[in-house]
Write a structure and sequence with these properties.
alpha/beta; binds inosinic acid
């Protein structure tokens, strides 16, 4: 069993399902925590985990992700959460009106506190910004992020097979499985 600290139920559900395919049981610690502002996802995740470690004192992980739009020079990137809450998907679509280069990526960083120190694992998925919102599933920017012709919000659980979070969590779970087999 491993603790996942997040206030986002959508994220927890995705990670729990990914854990099931790896035989790792993920427990939800529903909690808002202070997210340090910064220009780099890794740095933000490490600093946030170090702050939390002072309180939690047992192994846990957090995950921080962002949407990086090429034509917007990587915006909203580390500011994705704030931008989603303010201008949202409609705002991003507006910024992208008339823009031909629609390339974008999601990146996820997992920061894992193993009781002693913090380690990070990352994952990315490349796609396009759609021209309009499509699909009802998922959360956040899912309705405007298109992967191989469908938005993440149209893909439902299939998103979990290819997402940035899937890739970061997979790297993480593989690494802890390796650690466990070494110490057994
Ligand atoms: P955070 O990692 O919770 O800080 O997420 C940053 C922002 O990106 C939030 O507004 C999330 O809703 C959004 N976000 C993170 N992961 C995803 C995803 O898988 N799909 C769509 N939006 C996401």
């Amino acid at each position: 069993m491993i603790l996942f600290i997040t206030s986002n139920e959508g994220k927890f559900k995705e990670v729990k399902r990914i854990g099931e395919t790896f035989g790792v049981e993920v427990e939800w610690m529903k909690m808002e925590y202070e997210e340090i502002q910064g220009s780099d996802l890794e740095e933000i995740a490490i600093k946030s985990a170090e702050l939390l470690a002072k309180e939690i004192k047992k192994p846990f992980f957090i995950e921080d992700s962002g949407l990086f739009v090429e034509a917007l020079k990587g915006f909203p990137g580390p500011y994705s959460s704030y931008v989603f809450k303010t201008i949202g998907n409609n705002g991003i679509l507006k910024l992208m009106e008339g823009v031909n280069n629609r390339k974008a990526k999601f990146k996820a960083v997992v920061a894992y506190f193993d009781g002693k120190g913090v380690r990070t694992f990352s994952g990315e998925v490349h796609g396009l910004i759609a021209t309009e919102k499509r699909g009802e599933k998922g959360f956040g920017y899912d309705p405007i992020f298109e992967y191989k012709g469908r938005t993440f919000a149209e893909m439902g659980d299939e998103k979990n097979e290819v997402s940035h979070r899937r890739r970061a969590i997979e790297n993480f779970f593989r690494s802890i499985a390796k650690d466990r087999s070494r110490t057994q």
